Amino acid sequence: MKLLAIDTSTEACSCTLSIEGIAHTRAVIAPRQHAALILPMIAELLQLADLKPTQLDGLAFVCGPGSFTGVRITAGVAQGIAFAADIPVVPISSLATLAQAAHIEYGVEQVLAAIDARMSEVYWGRYLIDAYGIMRCNGEESVCAPDNISIPTTGTWHGTGSGWATYSAKLAPLIGNMLYHYHGDKYPQSHAMIPLALAAFQEGKAVSAEQALPVYVRNKVVQTTT
Q: Residue 216: its pLDDT value, please?
């Protein structure tokens, strides 16, 4: 499968082109520069592979949660490419991407993914590996004050994401002895989207270009509590 994955949901900006399991990635930490960077990065990868967007089998994009502007950029780019090339799209969670990257890098199977949501809140999700090596959400993703996170009851967990850098003093004591380690310097990266996207395509979760929409966890929480 020829698959393009893109993400601009946080401070990191990245894209990965995977062709029959061989992947090439472009990535940079560049806050507030994503709109200028992401399209040239994509064009570079396609040129390297001598591919046109119409030759892609599908596209994956991080739909959120994350920076409102960054998530909109990713969705807009995904929609534009998918419309023009008439290819299907799969939306991928930034928290799932963090969890999958932790599994790829460290081999961990239980992950607490956290992204700094500003306003003294954190985007939070618990993830468990399945039999096929795919991180699956255990419960629901949420946005809340660090004191109000959903705490696992058993197991040994690995923390990852910028939320751990900002709020480790509050998060770590809540997890206690179940927390093995955490890395607060991690951001979602497109290379970790590839296994998630392939699984999503196999499971029939692809959508059309017009359905490639951002997911704002903060808005979902507001809607369910009013």
A: 80
